[in-house]
Write a structure and sequence with these properties.
about 375 residues, Rossmann fold, 2 domains
Length: about 375
């Protein structure tokens, strides 16, 4: 395991800082700057220690020149300048003379933000394949490497994993807090421990579901994940989204943990452009499930009210659409009044919490999506291992 930032000599050093600024941007404006705000503690610690900082981050996926245009970090650079009381510069290049000149001229307590690391993924996937020469190049720009990008630390990329082979390396305050809080969730949860899981697909979550079922008292399901469990259990789900390839594995999970798993009993569906409410036994072949219904909401709240610890991962419906946000909103509202410790597990769960007005309502919000799941399953992250 890498060293915590406070245990590394970083005074007046040039620091390569990997953060996770993979935020949603619409019309050149940041929808939610939570990830940026949560990086500030590490950035300010480095500034207080007279460091010059070179910031690396990815944004989205880059598979074409068009992707480069829509996934530029420039709006994030503008927001970072607003949040910090120091000189912040931007490099349009991810390597080369322009970048090197900016690095060379960088003074103590100044910051250089480098364009999206995944620009190096087109056309040769150099970032994502952890290209050794790219790793070595980025490492050559600095004296010390600090990783504070929890949300992407489950990946062996050049900017998260490769560079640390060539520099004294450590992790920042955000990663330290994530590890501390998720360890609390995993190993010291007060019972009853309830997991609420939603989202579109179950394919990449079966391992986490199995791991959580060994620890939790109830697993409450919504979204496409619930559809797959219902289908695997013999229920009709109409034209709703299911994970076909995971059906057999889900059947095995149900067989071994049936008493712990709770699925919806009614739904809000779309049928030929009509929004309808259906009971589990009345689903029509043309129905598409988009939210849980009122009976399910009440049933879930009755289970939740007994909980001491709650972990939310994903949403129980398509909350982005006004027609299908009630289930997610009602559950979050109920949780906000609960005395239980509520952990929100990254990705869509955090987005829904922020969008629906519960930004400061819960004990902890993880910045990770896949990284949170990976840490729960394995208790470690690839980019933080020696």
């Amino acid at each position: 395991m890498m060293e915590f930032i406070e245990n590394i000599d970083i005074k007046s050093k040039r620091v390569l800082l990997r953060v996770d600024f993979n935020v949603t941007i619409k019309d050149s404006k940041i929808v939610d700057d939570t990830k940026i705000a949560m990086s500030l503690k590490t950035i300010n610690y480095l500034l207080d220690n007279n460091c010059s900082i070179i910031i690396l981050s990815h944004l989205g996926k880059v598979k074409s020149e068009e992707d480069k245009l829509k996934n530029t970090l420039y709006p994030v650079y503008i927001r970072l300048k607003e949040l910090l009381n120091t000189n912040v510069y931007f490099s349009k290049k991810t390597r080369g003379e322009e970048l090197e000149n900016l690095v060379r001229n960088l003074k103590e307590k100044e910051i250089l933000m480098v364009e999206n690391t995944r620009y190096e993924d087109y056309p040769n996937k150099l970032e994502s394949s952890c290209d050794n020469e790219l790793s070595k190049y980025w490492a050559s720009l600095a004296d010390v490497y600090i990783n504070d990008a929890f949300g992407t630390s489950h990946r062996k990329h050049a900017s998260t994993y490769g560079v640390k082979k060539y520099l004294t390396s450590g992790y920042g305050y955000l990663i330290n807090e994530e590890k501390t809080k998720l360890d609390e969730l995993l190993y010291h949860s007060e019972k009853p421990f309830i997991v609420i899981m939603g989202g579109a697909k179950v394919d990449d979550k079966t391992l986490m579901i199995k791991e959580l079922l060994t620890k939790c008292d109830k697993l409450i399901l919504g979204g496409g994940i619930a559809n797959t469990f219902l289908y695997a259990n013999g229920n009709n789900v109409g034209k709703s989204l299911i994970s076909v390839d995971a059906i057999q594995e889900v059947k095995d999970i149900i067989k071994e943990n049936n008493e712990k798993i709770v699925t919806p009993i009614d739904f809000v569906v779309l049928n030929n452009d009509k929004v309808l409410t259906r009971n589990i036994n009345d689903i029509n072949e043309d129905d598409i499930i988009y939210d849980i219904g009122n009976e399910s909401i009440l049933n879930y709240e009755n289970i939740i009210k007994e909980a001491k610890t709650i972990f939310i991962n994903g949403t129980v419906g398509l909350y982005e659409d006004e027609r299908f946000k009630k289930g997610t909103n009602e559950i979050l509202n109920y949780l906000s009044k609960s005395e239980a410790k509520v952990f929100v597990g990254g990705g869509d769960a955090v987005s829904s919490v922020n969008k629906l007005g519960y930004k400061d309502a819960f004990y902890y919000k993880s910045t990770g999506g896949g990284a949170t799941l990976e840490y729960i399953i394995k208790g470690k992250l690839e980019a933080l291992e020696d």
